[in-house]
Amino acid sequence: MTKLTTAEMRGYQQICGSDGAMMVIACDQRGGMRSLLARDPAEQAAISDRVLGDTKADIARFLASKASCVLVDPICAVPALVDDRVLQRDTALLIGLDASGWDTSPEGYRLSKLVPGISARRVRQLGATGGKIMVYLRSDRDAANAYNIQILKQCIEDFAHEDLLLVVEFLTYKFDDEDEADYKAKLPSLIVGGSKICLDLGAKVLKIPYPGSSEACAEVTRLAGDVPWAVLSAGVDHTTFLTQVEDAMRNGASGVIAGRSLWKDCISLDRSVTKDRLETVAVPRLREIQAVIAMHFKGTGSHGADQRQRAHG
C-alpha cells in the first residue's frame, strides 16, 4: 500500500481538523451549481464564471471558515479566493482537476475530462494544499474504465512528481440500457470495486460515495488499510446524509467531503439570500455533521489507525 510522503502527510494534516478527521466543504461544481441557481437553461447559460466565483466565495466564508478545508474548481474560484484573502490562514485549499460533465464512448461509457492546463505544478502555483481528481468507474466492466484509468494514472504520477497531495474520487453510474433496480442492487459492490481500482493505482486519499451498507463501508476500510477515505454527499438530503456519515464513520471512514447536501438549497443569485441561508441553514447542518464525526472518529494518528483497526476487527 502506497504511503503518504512527508510533504503529502503535511498536506493531509492541513485538510483535516484538529481531531485528525477530514471535514472538507466541496463547491467545485460548475454545471450543477448553475442548475441550482436557475431553472431555465438559457438563464443557466447566462450565469458567468464570476457569479459562480462569488457564490463559492460566500460558501467559503460561511462554511469553510468553520471546517478544515474547501474544495473548489480552477476556473471560477481561484486565484480570487487566495488573492482577495477570502480564505482564512488556517483553511486548507483543494483544487479539482476534473472538467464539468463527461464525454460518451460509442459503447455508452462515461469518459472523464480534465480542465485544460491544470497540472500539479499549476495547483501549487494557485496556492493550494493539494488537488482532487474525479473519474467515472464501473468496476464490473473492465472495458468501461480503460480511458479513465489512464487519466487517473496520469494525475497520480504528476502529483507524485511534484510531491503534492492528491485526493482521488470516483463516481459510478447506470448504463442507459440497465434496469434501475438491478443497478441499485449492485451499488455496494460497484463502490467497493471502484475503491479497489483507485487503491491499486496508488491513491493515497479517497473520496467516495457512501458504500451502501455497514458491511460495504467496512470492506472499503479493509481494502484501504492505511489509506484514509472520506464519504461524499452526492446531493442527498441532509437527514439521509447524516445517517450515511454515521455509518461510514462507525466503519472506518476518516471524514467527510460534502457539498450540495450542505448548501444546495441555500444559494441564490441574490447574494443577500445566499449569505442569510448559509448562516441560518447550512452552518447548523455543518455543525451536525461535525458532531457525528466527533462522536465516531477516534483516530489517534494522522489518519485514524485506531479507527480502521476497529473496523477490521
From TrEMBL:
One of its GO terms (biological process) is 6-sulfoquinovose(1-) catabolic process. InterPro entries: Aldolase_TIM, DeoC/FbaB/LacD_aldolase, LacD_aldolase. GO terms for molecular function: 6-deoxy-6-sulfofructose-1-phosphate aldolase activity; tagatose-bisphosphate aldolase activity. It is an enzyme of class 4 (lyase). The keyword Ion transport does not apply. Its EC number is 4.1.2.40. It comes from the Bacteria. Keywords: Lyase. Gene3D superfamilies: Aldolase class I (3.20.20.70). SMART domains: DeoC. Pfam families: DeoC. PANTHER family: SULFOFRUCTOSEPHOSPHATE ALDOLASE (PTHR39340). Belongs to the aldolase LacD family. This is Tagatose 1,6-diphosphate aldolase. It comes from Rhizobium tropici. The lineage of its organism: Bacteria, Pseudomonadati, Pseudomonadota, Alphaproteobacteria, Hyphomicrobiales.
